[in-house]
TrEMBL record:
Substrates-to-products reaction catalysed: cytidine(1402) in 16S rRNA + S-adenosyl-L-methionine = N(4)-methylcytidine(1402) in 16S rRNA + S-adenosyl-L-homocysteine + H(+)
HAMAP family in UniProt: 16SrRNA_methyltr_H (MF_01007)
UniProt region (Disordered), positions on chain: 289-309
Protein location: Cytoplasm
Example GO BP: rRNA base methylation
Gene name for this UniProt entry: rsmH
Residues that coordinate or bind S-adenosyl-L-methionine: 44-46, 61, 88, 107, 114
Keyword list, A-Z: Cytoplasm, Methyltransferase, rRNA processing, S-adenosyl-L-methionine, Transferase
GO cellular component term, pick one: cytoplasm
PANTHER family xref list: 12S RRNA N4-METHYLCYTIDINE METHYLTRANSFERASE, S-ADENOSYL-METHYLTRANSFERASE MRAW
Organism of this sequence: Devosia psychrophila
EC number in record: 2.1.1.199
UniProt protein name: Ribosomal RNA small subunit methyltransferase H
The keyword rRNA processing is annotated on this UniProt entry: yes
Amino acid sequence: MGKRFMPETSQDNGPHVPVLLDEVLAALSPLEGKRIVDGTFGAGGYSRALLEAGALVVAIDRDPSVKPFADALMAEFEGRLIFVPGTFSELDTLASEHGPIDGVVLDIGVSSMQLDQAERGFSFMREGPLDMRMSGQGESAADLVNTLDAEPLANLLYAFGEERKSRRIAQFIVAARETAPIQTTLELAKTVEKAIGRKPGDAHPATRTFQALRIAVNAEFEQLVEALFASERLLTEGGKLVVVTFHSLEDRIVKRFFDPDKGGPAQSRHLPQVQTEARRWVEVAKARKAGESELGRNSRARSAILRTATRSDAVQRPVSLDGLSVPQIRGAE
């Protein structure tokens, strides 16, 4: 079971603070004169630090609300920040004309900036429309909640949120919407709390439900896989990929991507050894987590996991989900 979830932030948390920043910079160093793709620009925390370290940054984000942050950094670091609207799943195409690229950094998941914008509908702590679309386009969370039958809705909550009580939650949602559509974040949060209750000291009962819906609305697992393979296509030998994830489902995908053999069956020493493919990623570092000092400054770092690796000279792979343990919507418990 996954245990790491994106924590909600409070109104007084201030601007978004990039997690594991020192570790990210160390993994990409030396940065002077290097070209780095920040595939998840957000409020520009990583990009600013990379620019201050002497790098040229190609920043990518699909969220139109980040433009003021990008404009400010482009004005401050004239000629050294290139902002490209788009999804990080296409980062190789978006960044190729600005290469060669020496490194890619990805910060996966919703940012505290987005959580703090009630009108975006990401937070169960703030009243807002049940939206959750990072790009503002396509189906919203309200569309899923109000149109899916109980079984597929339960399956979604179980697969993407690892919600063990998914069937009961789905039943309560379907019953609630018979009176009126569920249109706001707090309406959904209250419905989930009514379904499964709330124990003092535990995480909010709607945490996993909101996570699952956000992942589904934004196709986050598919985007992550595409971004990893896009990085493999973009980077040449010696290029570095740095990925920060916020729960175990994403972290497992990144871990298996860097080291596919980790997901395969163990080979018996009594049988002929199967020839493994050439490794596309070398110098695969152990997972890193935030230290006590950072945790004291930034609660968002509590669930963050950093993984890094260096591109080898092996030919790139075709995009495939095989061996990556990408969650699939199946039967709920």
